[in-house]
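Its record is set out here:
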Amino acid sequence: MCGIVGYIGSRSATEVIIGGLQRLEYRGYDSAGIAIYDVEAGLQLRRSVGKLSNLVARVSHEPAVGTIGLGHTRWATHGGVTEMNAHPHRDASGSIVVIQNGIVENYLELKSRLLEQGVPFQSQTDTEVIAHLLAYHYQREGALAPALRETMLELRGGNAVVAFCIHEPDRFVAARLGNAGGVVLGSAQGEHFVASDVPAILDYTRDLIFLEDRDLAVVSRDGIAISRLDGSQVARPTVTVPWDPIAAARGDYKHFMEKEIHEQPRALVDVLRGRIDHEAGRVDLEDLRLDDADLRRVERIYTTACGTAWHAGLVAKFMIERLARVRVEVDYASEFRYREPVLGKDSLLLAFTQSGETVDTLAAMEQARDQGVPSVAIVNAIGSQAARVADGGPIYLHAGPEIGVASTKAFTSMLVSAYLFALRLAQARGTMTPDQIRPHLQALVELPGKAATIIERVLPQCEELTEHYHRASNALFLGRQQNYPIALEGALKLKEISYIHAEGYPAGEMKHGPIALIDEDLPVVCIAPRDEIYPKMVSNIEQVQARHGQVIAIITDGDDFLPTRARHTLSVPPTIPLLQPVLTAIPLQIFAYTMAVRRGCDVDQPRNLAKSVTVE
């Protein structure tokens, strides 16, 4: 959710940049800063923690003058909320300035290499690694653009980076790697802008250019030049955005659901921000009000939710029981509130809700409170009723507004939030040591980049699948263990927006009823990543195939066996088994979306459905 704004022109760069950052405040942040350059005044860096008003106050006392500069609002990932960790960051010479959105997955490796070379670090951030790498390549290349190109090629993970050097005072350079951070460029009458999102610069121009993965742009007083990280030149189209807040929010996507599917890499970055400490092997949930002693007393957890959020609760059961060794029961909130549950003083209620206003979930939380049981809300909407009722504290998704009725980015963010909670619980209860937690943190950090890979790869594949299946009237989704809830979620998505009847089942139950439905007209989506129960899923797929079902298999990259058994395959990168649902869910979202588009359905507002169910 970090905000990026850059400007070069004839106006006060400070005013343009701070105004743009204010328009990005909805993204969430915990510190802010600007770097402004003037030939006479030199490079002026102003940073502060907290709200932008603190930075404005700082600038009013210490003005920053110039017509070129960069600004940033940070949400902490590596390193705490301090002025030293706030962006922009500089290299050791103080001549290069960098702002970034994303996570450098291999920052520990890069930082160790730089420390061995004697490079001094001033912050705890992964961004400072970029500044020092850029300085190293600048010395070798002698120019900022090729230096940033070489730097980006060393980074792993999704990152948007903007850099400036005082030795080239007429330009800044921006690059995008992966999909965890957007970069939009704008031009108007001799001035040029860069931002992480459209609203930051709409006051100045509606003619925008969106950088693609592995694009690098040189933004100078003379114009904008875009190339690829391999050095080849490329032209990106200029998109004219109408002065319409809804259209502007949707950008160049046809539907909000499509936009929100593409926002998942960024959302997965944001849900991790400030919560993981690689070096200490720890998870810190900033708003959780339960300390280690409270968490050690928990012997049973009840997860409660509705719809898609209930599927997240089912996945959470696998995560919490395996990592923290605490028994978990999963309830529909609409059933939980009426069955007079006996909770017990050693219990905890874990509520999942995107809006924080779902009436049945709120009633379940109130019932827990009446029995003296604390509740924790995994919730997207900040300050919502669920966040206020949760006496154990909220765990915010920080996924940003989700407009499409069918949840996508909120769902995968719920899964990651649940994983963080499971690790936090394991940490408090001593079921995992820091050394055991670190590989899980690394796997979490790698998720955004893997999600971006899936979206780019699977979207055209699913568009092709719709040609085969858009006339289907039924579909079956099968999965096992932690991927069984994803089968339920995939079926729900297809039902919600394409109006195709679909059922999700645990694959081991197929012979107890659903197998009767299988014929040559039935698409059967089988979630079969390579894990400990892969052979069982292979057996289920062969049983479907023997009855002429049309198998669409979700497989792991490198699996060369199932493509010989299934009619179609969609592959996802490997990860820790308990995190596979985050990745296997995304192809099913895309499949449902492309099917709905092909069938001419109202994707964002499907019939009879509402985004938040606030009445029974």
